[in-house]
Amino acid sequence: MPSDEMSGLEPVVFLPKGARVMLTMNLWSSVGLCNGATGTIVDIVFQNNQNPPDLPIAVIVNFENYRGPHFSEERPMCVPICPITVSSQTEGGFHERQQLPLRLAWALTIHKSQGLTLSKAWIDVGKSERTAGVSYVAISRVKTLASCVIEPMTYERLTSLKSSANLQYRLQEEDRLNQLAQATCNAVNIEYVHH
Protein backbone atom coordinates (compact mmCIF):
# COMPACT_ATOMS: atom_id res chain seq x y z
CA MET A 1 0.00 0.00 0.00
CA PRO A 2 1.31 3.49 -0.81
CA SER A 3 2.06 5.72 2.18
CA ASP A 4 -0.78 8.17 1.40
CA GLU A 5 -3.27 5.29 1.86
CA MET A 6 -1.65 4.38 5.21
CA SER A 7 -1.87 7.79 6.95
CA GLY A 8 1.57 8.79 5.67
CA LEU A 9 3.41 5.77 7.10
CA GLU A 10 6.14 4.64 4.70
CA PRO A 11 6.68 0.91 4.02
CA VAL A 12 10.42 1.28 4.81
CA VAL A 13 12.26 4.09 6.58
CA PHE A 14 16.06 4.45 6.83
CA LEU A 15 16.86 6.67 9.83
CA PRO A 16 20.40 7.15 11.18
CA LYS A 17 21.39 9.20 14.23
CA GLY A 18 21.95 12.83 13.29
CA ALA A 19 19.46 12.71 10.38
CA ARG A 20 17.02 15.55 9.77
CA VAL A 21 13.48 14.14 9.92
CA MET A 22 9.91 15.32 9.58
CA LEU A 23 6.78 14.03 11.30
CA THR A 24 4.27 12.63 8.81
CA MET A 25 1.17 12.87 11.03
CA ASN A 26 -0.28 14.94 13.84
CA LEU A 27 0.66 13.41 17.20
CA TRP A 28 0.10 16.35 19.60
CA SER A 29 -0.43 19.54 17.59
CA SER A 30 -0.83 21.92 20.53
CA VAL A 31 2.81 21.33 21.60
CA GLY A 32 4.30 21.35 18.08
CA LEU A 33 4.22 17.64 17.24
CA CYS A 34 2.26 18.04 14.03
CA ASN A 35 2.54 16.86 10.44
CA GLY A 36 5.53 18.70 8.95
CA ALA A 37 7.38 19.38 12.23
CA THR A 38 11.12 18.89 11.72
CA GLY A 39 13.91 17.83 14.01
CA THR A 40 17.12 15.83 14.35
CA ILE A 41 17.45 12.21 15.49
CA VAL A 42 19.42 12.03 18.75
CA ASP A 43 19.10 8.32 19.52
CA ILE A 44 17.37 5.11 18.44
CA VAL A 45 16.13 2.73 21.14
CA PHE A 46 15.77 -1.03 20.43
CA GLN A 47 14.46 -3.84 22.62
CA ASN A 48 17.09 -6.15 24.12
CA ASN A 49 18.62 -8.48 21.51
CA GLN A 50 17.18 -6.47 18.62
CA ASN A 51 18.98 -4.35 16.04
CA PRO A 52 18.24 -2.93 12.60
CA PRO A 53 16.33 -3.86 10.49
CA ASP A 54 14.00 -4.55 13.48
CA LEU A 55 11.56 -1.76 14.30
CA PRO A 56 12.86 0.26 17.27
CA ILE A 57 10.83 0.91 20.43
CA ALA A 58 11.34 4.64 19.86
CA VAL A 59 13.39 7.21 18.01
CA ILE A 60 14.45 10.18 20.15
CA VAL A 61 14.04 13.37 18.10
CA ASN A 62 15.11 16.89 19.02
CA PHE A 63 12.28 19.10 17.64
CA GLU A 64 13.17 22.80 17.38
CA ASN A 65 9.60 24.00 17.96
CA TYR A 66 8.52 21.52 20.66
CA ARG A 67 6.61 23.22 23.52
CA GLY A 68 5.48 20.26 25.61
CA PRO A 69 6.60 18.55 28.82
CA HIS A 70 10.28 17.71 29.24
CA PHE A 71 11.18 14.03 28.97
CA SER A 72 14.78 14.81 29.92
CA GLU A 73 16.19 17.83 31.74
CA GLU A 74 19.44 17.57 29.75
CA ARG A 75 17.55 17.64 26.44
CA PRO A 76 14.26 19.53 26.93
CA MET A 77 13.34 19.56 23.21
CA CYS A 78 13.76 15.80 22.76
CA VAL A 79 10.72 13.59 22.29
CA PRO A 80 10.46 9.81 21.90
CA ILE A 81 8.58 8.96 18.70
CA CYS A 82 7.16 5.44 18.85
CA PRO A 83 5.86 3.25 16.02
CA ILE A 84 2.22 3.78 15.04
CA THR A 85 -0.09 1.07 13.71
CA VAL A 86 -2.52 2.00 10.94
CA SER A 87 -5.04 -0.27 9.24
CA SER A 88 -6.88 0.11 5.97
CA GLN A 89 -9.74 -1.82 4.39
CA THR A 90 -9.75 -2.06 0.57
CA GLU A 91 -11.28 -4.30 -2.04
CA GLY A 92 -8.06 -6.32 -1.86
CA GLY A 93 -8.54 -7.02 1.85
CA PHE A 94 -7.43 -5.74 5.23
CA HIS A 95 -4.01 -4.05 5.41
CA GLU A 96 -2.04 -3.06 8.48
CA ARG A 97 1.26 -1.21 8.79
CA GLN A 98 3.33 -0.52 11.88
CA GLN A 99 5.96 2.15 11.28
CA LEU A 100 7.54 5.29 12.68
CA PRO A 101 5.65 8.41 11.55
CA LEU A 102 8.91 9.96 10.29
CA ARG A 103 10.66 10.55 6.98
CA LEU A 104 13.99 12.07 6.08
CA ALA A 105 13.77 15.85 5.69
CA TRP A 106 17.05 17.24 4.45
CA ALA A 107 14.81 19.22 2.09
CA LEU A 108 11.12 20.23 2.06
CA THR A 109 8.79 21.35 -0.67
CA ILE A 110 7.57 24.91 -0.34
CA HIS A 111 4.03 23.62 0.19
CA LYS A 112 5.18 21.33 3.03
CA SER A 113 7.03 24.24 4.67
CA GLN A 114 3.84 26.32 5.03
CA GLY A 115 3.29 27.28 8.65
CA LEU A 116 6.87 26.48 9.69
CA THR A 117 9.40 28.99 11.00
CA LEU A 118 12.91 27.89 10.08
CA SER A 119 16.15 29.18 11.60
CA LYS A 120 17.88 28.94 8.20
CA ALA A 121 16.81 28.04 4.68
CA TRP A 122 18.34 27.47 1.26
CA ILE A 123 15.51 28.28 -1.15
CA ASP A 124 15.06 27.22 -4.76
CA VAL A 125 11.82 28.78 -6.05
CA GLY A 126 12.08 26.96 -9.38
CA LYS A 127 11.84 28.14 -12.97
CA SER A 128 8.26 29.43 -12.83
CA GLU A 129 5.54 30.41 -10.36
CA ARG A 130 2.93 27.70 -10.91
CA THR A 131 0.99 28.75 -7.81
CA ALA A 132 0.58 32.45 -7.07
CA GLY A 133 2.38 33.46 -3.90
CA VAL A 134 4.57 30.36 -3.59
CA SER A 135 7.78 32.44 -3.69
CA TYR A 136 6.48 34.61 -0.85
CA VAL A 137 5.64 31.48 1.17
CA ALA A 138 9.19 30.17 0.68
CA ILE A 139 10.92 33.40 1.65
CA SER A 140 8.64 34.08 4.62
CA ARG A 141 9.65 30.81 6.37
CA VAL A 142 12.66 32.57 7.94
CA LYS A 143 12.60 35.49 10.38
CA THR A 144 15.27 37.49 8.55
CA LEU A 145 16.49 37.54 4.96
CA ALA A 146 20.03 37.25 6.32
CA SER A 147 19.21 33.69 7.44
CA CYS A 148 18.33 32.44 3.96
CA VAL A 149 20.04 31.81 0.66
CA ILE A 150 17.92 32.13 -2.47
CA GLU A 151 19.08 30.17 -5.50
CA PRO A 152 19.84 32.47 -8.44
CA MET A 153 16.95 32.95 -10.86
CA THR A 154 16.56 34.57 -14.23
CA TYR A 155 15.11 38.01 -14.85
CA GLU A 156 12.42 36.30 -16.95
CA ARG A 157 11.40 34.24 -13.86
CA LEU A 158 10.74 37.45 -11.93
CA THR A 159 8.97 39.32 -14.74
CA SER A 160 6.83 36.33 -15.75
CA LEU A 161 4.81 36.81 -12.57
CA LYS A 162 3.14 39.89 -14.11
CA SER A 163 1.76 37.92 -17.03
CA SER A 164 0.66 34.78 -15.20
CA ALA A 165 -2.98 33.83 -15.74
CA ASN A 166 -3.47 33.33 -12.02
CA LEU A 167 -2.29 36.87 -11.21
CA GLN A 168 -4.48 38.32 -13.97
CA TYR A 169 -7.50 36.50 -12.56
CA ARG A 170 -6.72 37.72 -9.04
CA LEU A 171 -6.36 41.33 -10.24
CA GLN A 172 -9.68 41.13 -12.14
CA GLU A 173 -11.40 39.62 -9.10
CA GLU A 174 -9.97 42.34 -6.84
CA ASP A 175 -11.25 44.99 -9.27
CA ARG A 176 -14.70 43.34 -9.39
CA LEU A 177 -14.89 43.22 -5.58
CA ASN A 178 -13.80 46.87 -5.30
CA GLN A 179 -16.55 47.91 -7.75
CA LEU A 180 -19.10 45.87 -5.81
CA ALA A 181 -17.97 47.45 -2.53
CA GLN A 182 -18.20 50.94 -4.05
CA ALA A 183 -21.70 50.23 -5.43
CA THR A 184 -22.78 48.90 -2.02
CA CYS A 185 -21.41 51.99 -0.24
CA ASN A 186 -23.20 54.28 -2.74
CA ALA A 187 -26.50 52.39 -2.27
CA VAL A 188 -26.19 52.57 1.52
CA ASN A 189 -25.44 56.31 1.36
CA ILE A 190 -28.46 56.97 -0.90
CA GLU A 191 -30.65 54.90 1.41
CA TYR A 192 -29.29 56.74 4.45
CA VAL A 193 -29.96 60.16 2.88
CA HIS A 194 -33.60 59.29 2.10
CA HIS A 195 -34.40 58.32 5.70
From TrEMBL:
Keyword ATP-binding found: yes
InterPro entries: P-loop_NTPase, Pif1-like_2B_dom, PIF1_helicase
Pfam family, any one: Pif1_2B_dom
DNA helicase Pif1-like 2B domain boundaries: 15-43
Keywords: ATP-binding, Helicase, Hydrolase, Nucleotide-binding
GO MF term (any one): helicase activity
UniProt KW Signal keyword: no
PANTHER family: ATP-DEPENDENT DNA HELICASE (PTHR47642)
Protein name per the record: ATP-dependent DNA helicase PIF1
